Amino acid sequence: MDITELSRGLDTVWVVLTAAMILLMEGGFALLEAGFVRQKNAVSIIMKVFVDICFGALVFYLVGFGIMYGKDIGGLFGASGFLMKGDLSHIVLNISNETYWLFQCAFVIAVISIVSGAVAERIHFRAYILFTIAMTGLIYPLAGHWVWSGSGWLGKLGMIDFAGSAVIHALGGFAALAAAIFIGPRIGKFMPDGKVNIVPPSNLPLASVGAFILWFGWFGFNAGSTLSATHSGIGHIAITTMLSAASGGAICILFTMLRYKKADPPMVINGSLAGLVGITAGCAFVSDTAAILIGAVCGIAMVLATEMLERKKIDDPVGAFAVHGISGSIGTLAVGLFAVPELAANSGQGYYGLFYGGGWSLLGVQALGLVTVAVWGFAITWLFLKLIRLIMPVRVSKDEELVGLDVGIHGVPAYSDNSDFIDLDRVKSGN
Protein backbone atom coordinates (compact mmCIF):
# COMPACT_ATOMS: atom_id res chain seq x y z
CA MET A 1 0.00 0.00 0.00
CA ASP A 2 1.46 3.36 -1.03
CA ILE A 3 0.95 6.69 0.75
CA THR A 4 -1.91 7.68 -1.56
CA GLU A 5 -3.89 4.53 -0.80
CA LEU A 6 -3.19 4.91 2.92
CA SER A 7 -4.38 8.52 2.89
CA ARG A 8 -7.54 7.56 1.02
CA GLY A 9 -8.23 4.76 3.48
CA LEU A 10 -7.75 6.98 6.53
CA ASP A 11 -9.99 9.69 5.09
CA THR A 12 -12.67 7.13 4.28
CA VAL A 13 -12.66 5.74 7.82
CA TRP A 14 -12.73 9.27 9.26
CA VAL A 15 -15.69 10.39 7.15
CA VAL A 16 -17.69 7.20 7.77
CA LEU A 17 -17.11 7.45 11.53
CA THR A 18 -18.05 11.12 11.71
CA ALA A 19 -21.11 10.44 9.55
CA ALA A 20 -22.12 7.77 12.07
CA MET A 21 -21.66 10.32 14.87
CA ILE A 22 -23.99 12.72 13.06
CA LEU A 23 -26.56 9.96 12.51
CA LEU A 24 -26.39 9.19 16.25
CA MET A 25 -27.58 12.76 16.79
CA GLU A 26 -31.01 11.52 15.69
CA GLY A 27 -31.09 9.61 18.94
CA GLY A 28 -30.29 12.91 20.62
CA PHE A 29 -33.12 14.67 18.79
CA ALA A 30 -35.50 11.86 19.75
CA LEU A 31 -34.63 11.97 23.46
CA LEU A 32 -34.47 15.77 23.63
CA GLU A 33 -37.85 16.27 21.98
CA ALA A 34 -39.53 13.36 23.77
CA GLY A 35 -38.36 14.86 27.05
CA PHE A 36 -39.58 18.35 26.19
CA VAL A 37 -43.09 17.37 25.00
CA ARG A 38 -45.90 15.90 27.07
CA GLN A 39 -45.88 12.22 27.89
CA LYS A 40 -48.86 11.53 25.61
CA ASN A 41 -46.83 12.56 22.54
CA ALA A 42 -43.48 10.83 23.12
CA VAL A 43 -44.09 7.99 20.63
CA SER A 44 -45.14 10.55 18.03
CA ILE A 45 -41.74 12.26 18.32
CA ILE A 46 -39.89 8.96 17.94
CA MET A 47 -41.92 8.09 14.86
CA LYS A 48 -41.10 11.44 13.25
CA VAL A 49 -37.39 10.77 13.80
CA PHE A 50 -37.80 7.42 12.03
CA VAL A 51 -39.48 9.28 9.16
CA ASP A 52 -36.52 11.68 9.06
CA ILE A 53 -34.01 8.86 8.78
CA CYS A 54 -35.89 6.43 6.55
CA PHE A 55 -37.61 8.76 4.08
CA GLY A 56 -34.81 11.34 4.28
CA ALA A 57 -32.12 8.85 3.25
CA LEU A 58 -34.15 7.37 0.41
CA VAL A 59 -35.28 10.71 -1.05
CA PHE A 60 -31.79 12.19 -0.78
CA TYR A 61 -30.43 9.15 -2.63
CA LEU A 62 -33.08 9.35 -5.35
CA VAL A 63 -33.04 13.09 -6.07
CA GLY A 64 -31.61 15.26 -3.30
CA PHE A 65 -27.93 14.52 -3.79
CA GLY A 66 -28.20 15.12 -7.54
CA ILE A 67 -29.85 18.51 -7.04
CA MET A 68 -27.29 19.48 -4.41
CA TYR A 69 -24.05 18.14 -5.88
CA GLY A 70 -24.85 17.21 -9.48
CA LYS A 71 -23.42 18.95 -12.51
CA ASP A 72 -24.20 22.65 -12.09
CA ILE A 73 -26.88 24.51 -14.07
CA GLY A 74 -26.47 28.27 -13.82
CA GLY A 75 -25.25 28.22 -10.23
CA LEU A 76 -28.78 27.24 -9.14
CA PHE A 77 -29.07 23.45 -9.06
CA GLY A 78 -27.41 20.20 -10.02
CA ALA A 79 -28.62 18.03 -12.87
CA SER A 80 -26.76 14.73 -12.47
CA GLY A 81 -26.09 12.19 -9.75
CA PHE A 82 -29.68 11.03 -9.26
CA LEU A 83 -29.55 7.54 -7.72
CA MET A 84 -25.78 8.22 -7.66
CA LYS A 85 -25.70 7.75 -11.44
CA GLY A 86 -24.57 10.01 -14.24
CA ASP A 87 -21.70 12.49 -14.42
CA LEU A 88 -20.17 13.24 -11.01
CA SER A 89 -16.63 13.71 -12.28
CA HIS A 90 -16.64 17.31 -11.03
CA ILE A 91 -16.57 16.04 -7.42
CA VAL A 92 -12.87 15.72 -6.73
CA LEU A 93 -12.21 14.38 -3.22
CA ASN A 94 -9.91 11.89 -1.54
CA ILE A 95 -12.91 9.72 -0.72
CA SER A 96 -15.41 7.88 -2.91
CA ASN A 97 -18.67 9.50 -3.97
CA GLU A 98 -20.52 6.86 -1.94
CA THR A 99 -18.64 7.89 1.21
CA TYR A 100 -19.35 11.53 0.48
CA TRP A 101 -23.05 10.72 -0.01
CA LEU A 102 -23.23 9.06 3.41
CA PHE A 103 -21.80 12.13 5.13
CA GLN A 104 -24.14 14.49 3.29
CA CYS A 105 -27.08 12.18 3.99
CA ALA A 106 -26.44 12.57 7.73
CA PHE A 107 -26.66 16.35 7.28
CA VAL A 108 -29.96 16.29 5.42
CA ILE A 109 -31.54 14.13 8.12
CA ALA A 110 -30.50 16.69 10.73
CA VAL A 111 -32.23 19.52 8.82
CA ILE A 112 -35.67 17.96 8.82
CA SER A 113 -35.30 16.96 12.48
CA ILE A 114 -35.10 20.67 13.36
CA VAL A 115 -38.59 21.21 11.94
CA SER A 116 -40.10 18.19 13.71
CA GLY A 117 -39.70 19.80 17.14
CA ALA A 118 -41.47 23.03 16.19
CA VAL A 119 -44.63 21.20 15.06
CA ALA A 120 -44.60 18.57 17.79
CA GLU A 121 -47.87 17.45 19.41
CA ARG A 122 -50.17 18.62 16.61
CA ILE A 123 -48.95 17.90 13.05
CA HIS A 124 -50.58 15.04 11.18
CA PHE A 125 -48.21 12.14 10.62
CA ARG A 126 -49.01 11.69 6.92
CA ALA A 127 -48.57 15.42 6.27
CA TYR A 128 -45.21 15.26 8.03
CA ILE A 129 -44.07 12.47 5.71
CA LEU A 130 -44.91 14.59 2.68
CA PHE A 131 -43.08 17.61 4.08
CA THR A 132 -40.04 15.46 4.87
CA ILE A 133 -39.94 14.41 1.22
CA ALA A 134 -40.09 18.06 0.13
CA MET A 135 -37.37 19.17 2.56
CA THR A 136 -34.90 16.38 1.82
CA GLY A 137 -35.59 16.21 -1.90
CA LEU A 138 -35.74 19.89 -2.84
CA ILE A 139 -35.72 22.62 -0.16
CA TYR A 140 -32.42 21.76 1.53
CA PRO A 141 -30.58 20.42 -1.57
CA LEU A 142 -31.17 23.67 -3.49
CA ALA A 143 -29.86 25.83 -0.64
CA GLY A 144 -26.92 23.47 -0.21
CA HIS A 145 -26.08 23.72 -3.91
CA TRP A 146 -26.00 27.52 -3.75
CA VAL A 147 -23.39 27.49 -0.96
CA TRP A 148 -21.51 24.18 -0.93
CA SER A 149 -21.47 22.67 -4.41
CA GLY A 150 -18.43 24.64 -5.59
CA SER A 151 -20.48 26.06 -8.44
CA GLY A 152 -23.41 27.64 -6.61
CA TRP A 153 -23.91 31.39 -6.82
CA LEU A 154 -23.50 32.10 -3.09
CA GLY A 155 -20.37 30.00 -2.87
CA LYS A 156 -18.86 31.83 -5.83
CA LEU A 157 -19.54 35.15 -4.09
CA GLY A 158 -17.38 33.93 -1.22
CA MET A 159 -19.88 32.84 1.43
CA ILE A 160 -18.29 30.78 4.23
CA ASP A 161 -20.46 28.25 6.05
CA PHE A 162 -18.07 25.52 7.10
CA ALA A 163 -20.51 23.01 8.61
CA GLY A 164 -23.88 24.65 8.18
CA SER A 165 -24.98 27.45 10.54
CA ALA A 166 -26.86 28.87 7.55
CA VAL A 167 -27.46 25.95 5.17
CA ILE A 168 -28.60 23.58 7.90
CA HIS A 169 -29.58 25.52 11.01
CA ALA A 170 -30.87 28.86 9.74
CA LEU A 171 -32.68 27.08 6.92
CA GLY A 172 -34.18 24.52 9.29
CA GLY A 173 -34.92 27.16 11.93
CA PHE A 174 -36.82 29.48 9.61
CA ALA A 175 -38.64 26.51 8.07
CA ALA A 176 -39.58 25.52 11.63
CA LEU A 177 -40.86 29.04 12.31
CA ALA A 178 -43.04 28.98 9.20
CA ALA A 179 -44.41 25.56 10.11
CA ALA A 180 -45.16 26.59 13.70
CA ILE A 181 -47.04 29.71 12.54
CA PHE A 182 -48.86 27.83 9.78
CA ILE A 183 -50.08 24.99 11.97
CA GLY A 184 -50.95 27.18 14.96
CA PRO A 185 -50.38 26.73 18.71
CA ARG A 186 -51.33 23.71 20.77
CA ILE A 187 -54.79 23.71 22.31
CA GLY A 188 -54.64 25.54 25.64
CA LYS A 189 -51.18 27.03 25.19
CA PHE A 190 -52.49 30.58 24.80
CA MET A 191 -55.70 31.75 26.46
CA PRO A 192 -58.17 34.27 24.98
CA ASP A 193 -57.29 36.77 27.71
CA GLY A 194 -53.63 36.72 26.61
CA LYS A 195 -52.40 34.41 29.36
CA VAL A 196 -49.61 32.02 28.39
CA ASN A 197 -49.82 28.56 29.92
CA ILE A 198 -46.60 26.73 30.69
CA VAL A 199 -46.49 23.20 29.30
CA PRO A 200 -44.18 21.27 31.66
CA PRO A 201 -41.65 18.95 29.98
CA SER A 202 -42.44 15.29 30.55
CA ASN A 203 -38.89 14.19 31.33
CA LEU A 204 -36.03 16.67 31.74
CA PRO A 205 -33.39 14.00 32.48
CA LEU A 206 -34.30 12.39 29.16
CA ALA A 207 -34.03 15.74 27.40
CA SER A 208 -30.64 16.33 29.05
CA VAL A 209 -29.30 13.00 27.81
CA GLY A 210 -30.55 13.93 24.34
CA ALA A 211 -28.65 17.22 24.53
CA PHE A 212 -25.45 15.45 25.56
CA ILE A 213 -25.78 13.04 22.62
CA LEU A 214 -26.24 16.01 20.28
CA TRP A 215 -23.17 17.68 21.83
CA PHE A 216 -21.15 14.51 21.22
CA GLY A 217 -22.38 14.21 17.65
CA TRP A 218 -21.50 17.83 16.94
CA PHE A 219 -17.81 16.97 16.95
CA GLY A 220 -18.57 14.74 13.96
CA PHE A 221 -20.71 17.50 12.48
CA ASN A 222 -17.96 20.11 12.60
CA ALA A 223 -14.66 18.22 12.58
CA GLY A 224 -15.99 15.70 10.09
CA SER A 225 -16.63 18.50 7.61
CA THR A 226 -12.89 18.58 6.95
CA LEU A 227 -13.50 15.30 5.03
CA SER A 228 -9.91 14.38 5.89
CA ALA A 229 -8.37 12.50 8.81
CA THR A 230 -5.09 14.38 8.39
CA HIS A 231 -6.53 17.90 8.18
CA SER A 232 -4.45 20.24 10.34
CA GLY A 233 -7.52 22.09 11.61
CA ILE A 234 -9.31 19.20 13.32
CA GLY A 235 -8.00 20.07 16.78
CA HIS A 236 -8.88 23.74 16.40
CA ILE A 237 -12.37 22.90 15.15
CA ALA A 238 -12.92 20.60 18.12
CA ILE A 239 -11.87 23.19 20.69
CA THR A 240 -13.95 26.02 19.23
CA THR A 241 -16.92 23.66 19.15
CA MET A 242 -16.41 22.75 22.80
CA LEU A 243 -15.85 26.30 24.01
CA SER A 244 -18.88 27.76 22.23
CA ALA A 245 -21.19 25.06 23.58
CA ALA A 246 -19.86 25.50 27.12
CA SER A 247 -20.18 29.26 26.83
CA GLY A 248 -23.76 29.06 25.62
CA GLY A 249 -24.74 26.83 28.54
CA ALA A 250 -22.81 28.86 31.12
CA ILE A 251 -24.27 32.19 30.06
CA CYS A 252 -27.79 30.74 30.20
CA ILE A 253 -27.20 29.53 33.76
CA LEU A 254 -26.13 33.03 34.80
CA PHE A 255 -28.64 34.91 32.65
CA THR A 256 -31.68 32.90 33.82
CA MET A 257 -30.54 33.20 37.45
CA LEU A 258 -30.50 36.95 36.97
CA ARG A 259 -33.71 37.11 34.93
CA TYR A 260 -35.88 34.43 36.60
CA LYS A 261 -34.10 34.15 39.98
CA LYS A 262 -33.50 30.46 39.21
CA ALA A 263 -31.32 28.61 36.73
CA ASP A 264 -33.83 27.38 34.14
CA PRO A 265 -32.98 23.80 33.03
CA PRO A 266 -34.67 23.84 29.56
CA MET A 267 -33.00 27.19 28.81
CA VAL A 268 -29.61 25.85 29.89
CA ILE A 269 -30.05 22.76 27.70
CA ASN A 270 -31.01 24.92 24.74
CA GLY A 271 -28.26 27.41 25.56
CA SER A 272 -25.57 24.80 25.02
CA LEU A 273 -27.22 23.75 21.78
CA ALA A 274 -27.41 27.40 20.71
CA GLY A 275 -23.66 27.70 21.23
CA LEU A 276 -23.11 24.62 19.09
CA VAL A 277 -25.33 25.98 16.32
CA GLY A 278 -23.62 29.38 16.42
CA ILE A 279 -20.08 28.05 16.01
CA THR A 280 -20.92 25.65 13.18
CA ALA A 281 -20.28 28.16 10.37
CA GLY A 282 -16.98 29.49 11.66
CA CYS A 283 -15.52 26.67 13.76
CA ALA A 284 -12.54 26.37 11.41
CA PHE A 285 -12.02 30.11 10.90
CA VAL A 286 -12.46 31.93 14.23
CA SER A 287 -10.27 32.08 17.34
CA ASP A 288 -10.96 30.34 20.64
CA THR A 289 -11.88 33.67 22.25
CA ALA A 290 -14.32 34.47 19.45
CA ALA A 291 -15.90 31.03 19.91
CA ILE A 292 -16.60 31.81 23.56
CA LEU A 293 -18.13 35.15 22.62
CA ILE A 294 -20.26 33.61 19.86
CA GLY A 295 -21.59 30.97 22.25
CA ALA A 296 -22.48 33.58 24.88
CA VAL A 297 -24.28 35.84 22.42
CA CYS A 298 -26.20 32.88 21.00
CA GLY A 299 -27.23 31.72 24.48
CA ILE A 300 -28.66 35.10 25.50
CA ALA A 301 -30.31 35.61 22.11
CA MET A 302 -31.94 32.19 22.40
CA VAL A 303 -33.57 33.09 25.72
CA LEU A 304 -34.83 36.43 24.41
CA ALA A 305 -36.09 34.85 21.18
CA THR A 306 -38.00 32.20 23.15
CA GLU A 307 -39.72 34.93 25.16
CA MET A 308 -40.48 36.90 21.99
CA LEU A 309 -42.21 33.94 20.34
CA GLU A 310 -44.46 33.49 23.35
CA ARG A 311 -45.37 37.18 23.29
CA LYS A 312 -46.27 36.76 19.62
CA LYS A 313 -48.32 33.63 20.51
CA ILE A 314 -46.15 31.38 18.35
CA ASP A 315 -45.91 27.90 19.85
CA ASP A 316 -42.54 26.18 19.40
CA PRO A 317 -42.51 23.30 21.94
CA VAL A 318 -38.77 22.60 21.87
CA GLY A 319 -37.40 26.04 20.92
CA ALA A 320 -36.37 25.01 17.40
CA PHE A 321 -36.43 28.52 15.95
CA ALA A 322 -34.71 30.15 18.91
CA VAL A 323 -31.94 27.56 18.94
CA HIS A 324 -31.43 26.96 15.23
CA GLY A 325 -32.89 29.96 13.40
CA ILE A 326 -31.54 32.70 15.69
CA SER A 327 -28.22 31.09 16.61
CA GLY A 328 -27.64 29.94 13.04
CA SER A 329 -28.12 33.54 11.90
CA ILE A 330 -25.73 34.90 14.53
CA GLY A 331 -23.11 32.28 13.70
CA THR A 332 -23.32 32.99 9.97
CA LEU A 333 -22.81 36.73 10.49
CA ALA A 334 -20.08 36.17 13.09
CA VAL A 335 -17.83 34.69 10.41
CA GLY A 336 -17.90 38.06 8.65
CA LEU A 337 -16.70 39.69 11.86
CA PHE A 338 -14.28 37.21 13.42
CA ALA A 339 -12.72 35.13 10.60
CA VAL A 340 -8.97 35.18 11.25
CA PRO A 341 -6.88 35.88 8.10
CA GLU A 342 -4.58 32.86 8.37
CA LEU A 343 -7.52 30.55 9.08
CA ALA A 344 -9.91 32.07 6.56
CA ALA A 345 -7.30 31.59 3.88
CA ASN A 346 -8.14 27.88 4.08
CA SER A 347 -11.63 28.64 2.78
CA GLY A 348 -10.21 29.21 -0.68
CA GLN A 349 -11.92 32.60 -0.93
CA GLY A 350 -9.27 34.82 0.67
CA TYR A 351 -11.83 36.87 2.61
CA TYR A 352 -11.56 37.44 6.35
CA GLY A 353 -13.40 39.22 9.14
CA LEU A 354 -14.17 42.90 9.62
CA PHE A 355 -12.48 42.97 13.04
CA TYR A 356 -9.25 41.71 11.47
CA GLY A 357 -9.09 44.38 8.78
CA GLY A 358 -10.95 42.41 6.14
CA GLY A 359 -13.43 45.17 5.42
CA TRP A 360 -17.12 44.69 4.78
CA SER A 361 -16.89 42.24 1.88
CA LEU A 362 -17.21 38.99 3.77
CA LEU A 363 -19.80 40.33 6.20
CA GLY A 364 -21.89 41.56 3.27
CA VAL A 365 -21.73 38.19 1.54
CA GLN A 366 -22.60 36.39 4.77
CA ALA A 367 -25.61 38.67 5.29
CA LEU A 368 -26.79 38.15 1.72
CA GLY A 369 -26.46 34.39 2.04
CA LEU A 370 -28.24 34.36 5.39
CA VAL A 371 -31.19 36.41 4.14
CA THR A 372 -31.44 34.26 1.02
CA VAL A 373 -31.43 30.97 2.93
CA ALA A 374 -33.79 32.24 5.66
CA VAL A 375 -36.35 33.65 3.24
CA TRP A 376 -36.13 30.53 1.09
CA GLY A 377 -36.64 28.24 4.10
CA PHE A 378 -39.61 30.21 5.43
CA ALA A 379 -41.39 30.90 2.14
CA ILE A 380 -41.02 27.51 0.50
CA THR A 381 -42.06 25.73 3.71
CA TRP A 382 -45.21 27.83 3.84
CA LEU A 383 -45.92 27.05 0.19
CA PHE A 384 -45.44 23.31 0.58
CA LEU A 385 -47.64 23.17 3.68
CA LYS A 386 -50.39 24.98 1.75
CA LEU A 387 -50.06 22.45 -1.07
CA ILE A 388 -50.12 19.54 1.38
CA ARG A 389 -53.27 20.97 2.97
CA LEU A 390 -55.01 20.69 -0.40
CA ILE A 391 -54.45 16.92 -0.24
CA MET A 392 -54.91 16.12 3.45
CA PRO A 393 -55.18 17.77 6.88
CA VAL A 394 -51.89 19.22 8.10
CA ARG A 395 -53.06 19.29 11.70
CA VAL A 396 -54.61 16.45 13.69
CA SER A 397 -58.20 16.67 14.89
CA LYS A 398 -59.07 18.26 18.23
CA ASP A 399 -59.87 14.88 19.77
CA GLU A 400 -56.59 13.36 18.56
CA GLU A 401 -54.64 16.28 19.96
CA LEU A 402 -56.38 16.14 23.34
CA VAL A 403 -55.99 12.39 23.78
CA GLY A 404 -52.41 12.60 22.51
CA LEU A 405 -50.84 11.64 19.21
CA ASP A 406 -49.37 8.45 20.63
CA VAL A 407 -52.81 6.85 21.03
CA GLY A 408 -54.74 9.07 18.61
CA ILE A 409 -52.41 8.55 15.61
CA HIS A 410 -50.17 5.59 16.41
CA GLY A 411 -52.46 3.54 18.64
CA VAL A 412 -49.98 2.93 21.44
CA PRO A 413 -48.89 4.91 24.51
CA ALA A 414 -45.24 5.54 25.34
CA TYR A 415 -45.70 4.29 28.89
CA SER A 416 -48.18 1.81 30.35
CA ASP A 417 -49.15 0.91 33.90
CA ASN A 418 -50.33 -2.49 32.72
CA SER A 419 -47.73 -5.05 33.77
CA ASP A 420 -49.47 -8.09 32.29
CA PHE A 421 -50.25 -9.36 28.80
CA ILE A 422 -53.26 -7.89 27.02
CA ASP A 423 -55.83 -10.25 25.55
CA LEU A 424 -56.14 -8.90 22.00
CA ASP A 425 -59.38 -10.83 21.30
CA ARG A 426 -61.05 -9.32 24.37
CA VAL A 427 -59.91 -5.83 23.34
CA LYS A 428 -61.40 -6.30 19.88
CA SER A 429 -64.69 -7.60 21.28
CA GLY A 430 -64.95 -4.74 23.75
CA ASN A 431 -65.08 -6.98 26.84
Structure notes:
The protein has 431 residues and is mainly α. Helices cover 67% and strands 1% of the residues. The chain has helices at 3-36, 42-69, 97-118, 125-148, 153-157, 165-183, 204-223, 234-260, 265-279, 288-311, 320-338, 341-344, 361-391, 398-403, 405-408, 424-429, and strands at residues 72-73, 77-78. It has a two-stranded antiparallel sheet with strand order 1-2. Strand 1 and strand 2 form a beta hairpin. It is globular, with a radius of gyration of 22 Å.
Topology:
Blueprint: H1 3-36, H2 42-69, E1 72-73, E2 77-78, H3 97-118, H4 125-148, H5 153-157, H6 165-183, H7 204-223, H8 234-260, H9 265-279, H10 288-311, H11 320-338, H12 341-344, H13 361-391, H14 398-403, H15 405-408, H16 424-429
Antiparallel strand pairs: 1-2
Helix pairs in contact: 1-2, 1-3, 1-7, 2-3, 2-4, 3-4, 3-6, 4-6, 4-13, 6-11, 6-13, 7-8, 7-9, 8-9, 8-10, 9-10, 9-11, 10-11, 11-13
- The number of strands is 2
Count every helix, treating DSSP H or I runs of 4 or more residues as helices. Answer: 16
Choose one word for the global shape: globular
Query: Biggest sheet, strands in spatial order?
Result: 1-2
- Report mean pLDDT, rounded to a whole number: 93
Helix content: 55-70%
The profile of the biggest β sheet is:
2 strands, antiparallel
N/C terminus separation: 71 Å
Strand content: under 5%
Order of helices and strands: HHEEHHHHHHHHHHHHHH
Radius of gyration, CA atoms, in whole angstroms: 22 Å
Structural class designation: mainly alpha
Low-confidence stretches: none
